[in-house]
Amino acid sequence: MRVLSVAAELYPLVKTGGLADVTGALPGALAAEGVTMRTLVPGYPAVLSALDAGAATTELPPLMGGSARLLSGRAAGLELFVLDAPHLYARVGPYLGPDGRDWPDNAQRFAALSQVAARIGRGAAPGFTPDIVHAHDWQGGLALAYLALGEQRGVARPATVMTVHNIAFPGLFPATLLAELDLPVSSFTTAGIEYFGQISFLKAGLQFADRITTVSPTYAQEILGPAAGMGFDGVLRARADRLSGILNGIDTEVWNPARDPHIAAAYDAANPAPRAASKQAVQRRLGLVEDPGCLLFGVISRLTGQKGLDLLAEAVPALLATGAQLAVLGAGGAGIEAAFRSAQAGNPGRVGCLIGYDEGLAHLMQAGVDALLVPSRFEPCGLTQLCALRFGAIPVVARVGGLADTVIDANAAALAQGVATGVQFGPVAAIPLEQAIRRAAMLFADRAAWQTMQRNGMATDVSWTGPAKRYAALYRELAA
Ligand code: ADP
Predict the structure, then answer these.
(1) What is the pLDDT of residues 39-52, one digit of tens each?
(2) CA-atom Rg of the chain in angstroms
(3) Region label for 356, one of left (φ > 0), alpha (ψ between -120 and 50) or beta (otherwise)
(4) How far is CA 146 from the centre of its chain?
(5) How many angstroms is it from 302 CA to the middle of ligand 1?
(6) Is the minimum distance from the CB of 358 to ligand 1 under 6 angstroms?
(7) 386 lines ligand 1 (CB under 6 A)
(8) What is the maximum span of the chain, computed from C-alpha positions, in angstroms?
(9) Confidence at 18, pLDDT banded by 50, 70, 90
(10) How confident is the model at residue 333 (pLDDT cuts 50, 70, 90)?
């Protein structure tokens, strides 16, 4: 079974969020299921410089007004097709320019990626004709449209899968680009790629995919409704029989507290006591009072409204009233960044933040914080709570999407049965969040209950093994 994965980012080469973690980990996990996955990625500088020597080159016809070639080789242990088209990708930001705005030619950049994906799907790459083309998010969506529209003209195509990692990104572009993107006017209908007068690359994927998956069963249900569906719920309801949810895993080698170069002391589920060293390191790094007994909450996140962190900024006084500390690692919206900076300034030693992106500190925090806060308004799957489970940090999460599917709330029944792994709250608002923080503080004071939750979390299977089996089964069903 051969699968072409089409992705705009993949760990460890290019990452802006969880999408990269998923596309980077899936090929390895699927290999164990007998699936050979190759990933087509844009030739960003970071990808080209990581490519091993000896990559094979296939010349391509000019793409979007510039020359292009397809490199096929390995980088960071991954089998890749790299679309080398410097006029489109020789830039550092995968989506955004230095001014923080979308690159003005993102339509051309990701349509080009999708056109090449369709070519490979039809057998253009020597030695690798895929049985399945699997596109991720809007950046890959058009690939499935090109394949399906080609089929309408009699060109055979492989089966296709579209995975929605976050429906909040519709990939909208003006209809005036139709001809330049090589999309027939006949495709620009509500049953095609038209979305309120514009072209939506995401909708293209949703309409033309043989199967649609998203990254948790609860999110798959939620996006059928208007609130979480964000305008695509109608399209999805019409195709609900093609939609399913497959939870993400995490790379349990990259996220392994027994062998993590970024943490202060190694530990495992049998003896999590060395977490104390990482806790102290986090407190020191973020300027917090080095108190081993104080409950340390952490946040590792994009600081955006989706993540509900404006609510957390509001809840800081309630959090501090429990005697706890707060460590924040994240970057994003200026308003939320400013709110945490001012919380830090107003509460020295008790609130610490690092505004920015720091992979190493993310690992250290997972190993050192007592509880990880994820108050998302919506969360397709969420990866940080999975890392928290693996690292023995107790997730305190909103009861939405993948957070609802992966954390077992410490309600009375779960505590009595000894199966709780964290705290859930809902609806997603400041007061329920404050109540969840207080509930976590009460649990923290009960060392036995806390340690049981920690053990349960660390025993939870958050690996890719189960999810990879589900993807492989889906591919097999489609290929048959
Ligand atoms: P999303 O993809 O919506 O941002 P996920 O929880 O699915 O959220 O994935 C986020 C990933 O990015 C996790 O691997 C998390 O550790 C990482 N991450 C987020 N913000 C930061 C940051 N400021 N520094 C380091 N890693 C971060």
Answers:
(1) 999 999 999 999 99
(2) 23
(3) left
(4) 25
(5) 6
(6) yes
(7) no
(8) 69
(9) confident
(10) confident
